[in-house]
Amino acid sequence: MRLPTARAVLLRLAGAALFLALAVGGIAFLVEVEIADGRVVELAREESAAFLTEARSSLAAGAADSDLEASLQRFMASRNGLRLNHGDGHFIVAELYTPDQRKTAEYVAPGAEWAEQRLSSTRHGFPTDGEAIYDRFTLDGHIFIQTMEPLLDSDGRLLGYFESVFQLSARRSHEILRDTATVVAVSSLSVLGTALVLLPIFGAYNRGILRLSRGLLDANIGMLTALGSAIAKRDSDTNAHNYRVTVLAIRLAEALGLEDAAIRQLVKGAFLHDVGKIAIPDSILLKPGKLDAEEFAVMKTHVVHGLDIVGSSDWLADAADVVGGHHEKFDGSGYPRGLKGEAIPISARIFAVADVFDALTSRRPYKEPMSYATTMGILADGAGKHFDPAVLARFTAIAAGLHEQLTEMGDDGVRDELRGLVMRYFKLA
């Protein structure tokens, strides 16, 4: 697992704070808009209540439409003058309906015929629960509220409906916009200000967590190296094989385009591929000659032992693909499970090529190193049998340069090269 840098953590915290500020600002905006709408709806309720006070007897008695029309005209003219004096705005349309939803009277302010047409084309339903229905819309920078208000007598009996379109004055619209912008700004800035105060605290806390996490990661990598080196020394008196084969496997994985996570798993598996040999007796492990059938059966158990070892650690568990699969063969003749083709994990197919190449070109207690040409000939003979042909073909394209580079580096140089690769894949965010 890669660890994020302190800078990455701070950027994430800053991003979260900005998102929260925008979210709070958005919520504040919606709340403020609802409050503004409520103010205008309250105006409509005041008008309907005032109209009801003036026309209650006419409505209850079922006055003629012409009388209601004249009453509505007089009422709206007088009320608009009052509203204009207060600077809130004015009603540009008012309509009166009977309880059976028949229009009986209508008032349209001069020049507001378009609003009446809008009511006709987008008419909403009539309230059924005694609550007003309203709709807000903006046109040419002006705010309008369309309402439908039930008219009830003192006993709660429905006398009709009062529908209106109220146009806020420019001053009132600006006040609402200003108040809304102020609330949104204050809310957002409060969140951002709090975040700026807390950010250094969280940053310091996360830097401490990162230091502890990096220390743990270093310890895990140290354990990985120590385990791999221990068995390598026991097997060949040197841990250089582990270094070389891991570098070869990483470079081949890069050439094949594997993702970073898969390469990290490959690194663990490459270090620990033979860790199970710690359970193999020296008489078999270090035997200079060829193993007999019984000895080879014992040698093959190192895979099972290796899987037991890496399976005991959560951090090492993903090395199992290489530990358990590096002796499988592409044609299915390998062990321990006889996997075939792409059923063998890609990391194991990559490692098999790197492992055999380094084993053949390296000096071991029981053999001298083979030449590069001889080694490549043996690998070519194993294409489609021991090795994945596609993986081997990619390795063949880069093998000469890698072999020359690692030979020139020597054991110390290879160790330094591997350290740089491990730092890249395990420590950078």
Describe the structure.
Residues 216-411 form the HD-GYP domain. Keywords: Plasmid. InterPro entries: Cyclic_di-GMP/3'3'-cGAMP_PDE, HD/PDEase_dom, HD_GYP_dom. This is HD domain-containing protein. It comes from Azospirillum oryzae. There is one protein chain. By secondary structure, the protein is α+β, with helices and mostly antiparallel strands. It folds into two domains: 6-185, Beta-Lactamase; 236-426, Hypothetical protein af1432 (Orthogonal Bundle), CATH 1.10.3210. 65% of the residues lie in helices and 10% in strands. It has 13 helices and five strands. A five-stranded antiparallel sheet has the order 2-1-5-4-3, sandwiched between helices. α1 runs antiparallel to α4 and α5 (240-256) packs antiparallel against α6 (260-272). The mean pLDDT is 80.
